[in-house]
Amino acid sequence: MGSLFGRLSSCQKLGLDTSVFIYHFEANPVYLSLTTEILKGIEVGHWKGITSVITLMEINVRPLRLGQPEIARMYEAILVHFPNLKIINLDRDVVRKAAFIRANYHLHTADALQAAACILHGCDTFITNDRLLNRLQAELNVVLLDDLRQDQSQ
Questions:
Q1: What is the distance, to the nearest Å, from the Cα of residue 85 to the centroid of all Cα atoms in its chain?
Q2: Closest C-alpha among 55, 51, 138, 143 to residue 100
Q3: How many domains would you assign to the chain?
Q4: What share of the chain is helix, strand, coil (3-state, %, to 5)?
Q5: I need a labelling partner for 71 at 20 to 30 A (CA). Which of 9, 26, 64, 133 fits?
Q6: 114: CATH
Q7: What's the rounded Cα separation, in Å, for the pair 97 and 117?
Q8: Of 130, 101, 102, nearest in space to 22 by CA
Q9: What pTM, to 2 d.p., does this model score?
Q10: Confidence label for 30 from pLDDT (cuts 50, 70 and 90)
């Protein structure tokens, strides 16, 4: 698992932002090797993965806009059945934590909900590509895909 494995070697539970899945499902050439490595590590049990139902919503937007509901259903099925990946529902505790995050870190609602779900479910690292989420470093180790990509190229 190369440099990614080294960078995340002390992690046990990875929170995954929607971008990880979107880049992977769309085979984004800039990020595909990283997302493959991350998802393979979760699949084989090296890490436990956590995301929220926000991801289920966000990954379905583009296929539905393009009139491809079968692709949306396929994406959801992949996530729901993915080994070692837990999809967190939004309950009152998550919503309270998200309100705290929005109030203190000035993040968008979906980002605050995603982060809150991961924090409350014991993630030690959150993988995203949204630089604004770096504001959460006091709450959670935020790792950007762009930074991992730079690490790989060095």
A1: 10
A2: 138
A3: 1
A4: 60, 15, 25
A5: 133
A6: 3.40.50.1010
A7: 8
A8: 130
A9: 0.92
A10: very high
Residue 147: closest CA among 31, 26, 13, 28: 31
- Are 141 and 123 in contact by the 8 Å Cβ rule? The answer is no
Token pair for residue 135?
A: 């504001």
d(C-alpha 69, C-alpha 51), whole Å: 22
Q: Is 67 exposed, middle or buried (0-12, 13-18, 19+ CB in 10 A)?
A: exposed
State pLDDT tens for residues 111-148: 999 999 999 999 999 999 999 999 999 989 999 999 88
Find the distance separating the first CA and the last CA of the chain, reported in whole Å.
Answer: 16
Q: 75-107, pLDDT tens digit by residue?
A: 999 999 999 999 999 999 999 999 999 999 999
Q: Which domain holds residue 95?
A: 12-149
CA angle 29, 49, 70 (to 5 degrees): 60
Does residue 20 carry a pLDDT above 80? yes
CA-CA distance, 21 to 39, in Å (whole number)? 9
